[in-house]
Amino acid sequence: MTAGERTADRSVTVSIIQFNARDDAKDDNIEKVESLLRIAGQRGSDLCVLPEVFTGSALALGNSLELAEPIPGPTTERLCAIARTYGMYIVGSLYEAASGGIYNTAPLIGRDGSILAAYRKSHLFDPGVRPDLPVYRESDKVTPGDGLCVVDTDFGRMGIAICSDIRFPEIFLNHALQGAELVVLPSAFPARLDHWEFLNRARAADNQLFMVSSGMVGKLQDSSISFVGRSMVVDPWGVITAQASDREMVLTSVIDLGAVELVRSWWDLNSQRRPELYTALGR
Question: Residue ranges of the CN hydrolase domain (predicted)?
Fold first, then answer.
């Protein structure tokens, strides 16, 4: 297939699921996800992105151990069945119980219902004391992953990142240098709309790729914490082309991956990198 043919028609239908997962209702959360996935499937989605820790965030109850399960496991089996029924990719994160500890892991499920890859969140949410959040350290309960993830799909190369990873631009540069044209970001991002929007736009524009980012929405149960919601699609020029409103919903959009090649032809930023100057990046 030539470059011109790729640019002519590389449309992909993406759906983003945005909802509020309760820490004390894992089964209800999964049932809601299944219902929303069916909506996405009925819309002919090629790819569906779920929020981060969609079976329960453990932020309210601190019950990540109780929520954790193996991958493959009961929850991924249910998602695999839906992916197979509708012929779509599904990605979103949940707590994984593994020999090395508990991980915040995003499995990528293929159209045939197989698990193609699994990315373990590598940059955990360990902020200092902040005026907008109670003290919290994800690393108190979760083990960080030790690798990044770029996967070949039938529509192009896709990178995976999770929530606070978005604050580390090296991840997205790595994905772009490995040929990713699209990065999916499951998230339970706190209610900093300004940060959420400009970080998504910056990661897309800097690396000239699409960002497809899902977030929890609403208030965390029994807590002062709210989630930003506003799940979005950002194109390689940094333009928000689709954005969810402040409610539980399925946001569906058609993207043209040919736009990646087009924008990079306007100014291929990564071809002008000078790594020999960036001596501090190896620290």
Answer: 12-257
